[in-house]
Amino acid sequence: MAESALAANEAFYAALARGDTAAMTALWSHKRPVACIHPGWPVLAGREAVMRSWESILRTPPRIVAEAARVLEYGDTAVVLCIERIGDNRLAATNVFIREAEGWRMVHHQAGPTREATPQQPRPAGTIH
User: Is residue 33 exposed (0-12), middle (13-18) or buried (19+ Cβ within 10 Å)?
Assistant: First the structure.
């Protein structure tokens, strides 16, 4: 399960880096309530508000890389913690996925400033230190 949740997380960052609105839309749940907290933005709740925010961001996609991803598994819910690297900036991110019939779908994303440096060696999935 951890590998498939990590693959969904990687697909999220690939869509973000490419500015791929269709892929981003497909990654988010159509069945469950969703929410998103972008750095410096108000709390966004509901699919319409969240998708509007991504459409705005994806017009000029960031040069973003997700690093040091690790998964916390809770049955049909996976929480992926990672570091987003955007240029010299680092953000701590929490991405929550729910397993649906079509696969893992995102229900929450939150990113904010962190003092954590990117580790030299990535940690194995499912470990927290």
Answer: exposed
CATH 3.10.310.10 fits 2-113, yes or no: no
Provide the whole-model pTM.
0.88
pLDDT number for residue 2:
77
Q: What are the residue boundaries of the structural domains of the chain, listed by start?
A: 2-113
**Higher-confidence position of 44 and 116:** 44
**DSSP state at residue 31:** S
- Whether residue 61 contacts residue 16, with contact meaning beta carbons closer than 8 Å, is answered with yes
pLDDT tens figures, 50-79:
999 999 999 999 999 999 999 999 999 999
Q: What are 128's two structure tokens? A: 């927290």
Write down the pLDDT at residue 126: 54
Query: How many other β-carbons are positioned within 10 Å of the β-carbon of residue 127?
Result: 9
**Residue 77, C-beta contacts closer than 8 angstroms, at least 6 positions apart:** 96, 97, 98, 99
Give the whole-angstrom CA distance, residue 40 versus residue 84. Answer: 15
What tokens does 105 get?
A: 């779908």
